[in-house]
Specification:
The chain is an all-alpha fold and about 190 residues long. Helix content is about 80%, strand content about 0%.
Length: about 190
């Protein structure tokens, strides 16, 4: 099957997710600086989630640039990823509105964990379909960064109940690891 429709559909879902993220920031009823300061936790949650969704969109785009075609299995793996990412607005809002309370921060980490696992499954499905010697396989490699991200999430989730700020810092750390797209794909495609 052609990959064009899955790319177009995914781009639309990413756009909707990003749009819903900002809807969770309620406009203050007062027109002073103190009203804005009370929104800092909500805004910090929004920034992190916007960054994550942007990172997933960017890496998803690179991944599918290296792919030549897709199968039904790949379509389902892609939907699996989009499902977990579509929960980002809920988790972002819950975490921000509750000023980074332990349970919402841990739930946010669970969504990041399952999105990371889903992305790993998607990339492995694409590699499996295209073959071990394909450009895609060479560009994705062993995906150490993806595996490390999952390990960090597994540490951060229970940590949220002990040191909430430390769990949040680990989520930021993973985002920073992924901020720049994987240049291996671009090198292989050149």
């Amino acid at each position: 099957m052609s990959k064009g429709r899955v790319e177009a559909f995914s781009d639309g879902v990413f756009a909707v997710i990003i749009t819903f993220l900002v809807f969770n920031i309620k406009v203050p009823s007062l027109a002073d600086l103190a009203a804005l300061l009370s929104l800092i936790p909500v805004f910090l949650s929004y920034v992190l989630s916007f960054l994550y969704v942007g990172i997933y969109w960017n890496n998803h785009h690179h991944l599918f640039q290296a792919a030549e075609h897709v199968t039904g299995k790949i379509l389902w793996a892609n939907l699996h990823l989009l499902f977990w990412l579509s929960l980002a607005p809920f988790a972002t809002s819950w975490m921000g509105q509750n000023h980074f309370s332990p349970t919402p921060v841990a739930a946010y980490g669970c969504i990041l964990l399952f999105a990371g696992i889903a992305y790993f499954i998607l990339s492995r499905s694409l590699v499996s379909h295209h073959g071990k010697d394909s450009k895609l396989a060479m560009s994705v490699g062993a995906d150490r960064k993806g595996r490390l991200s999952i390990v960090i999430y597994l540490i951060a989730i229970p940590l949220a109940f002990v040191r909430t700020w430390a769990a949040y810092v680990l989520y930021v750390l993973v985002a920073l690891m992924w901020l720049l797209p994987d240049r291996r794909i671009e090198k292989v495609l050149r």
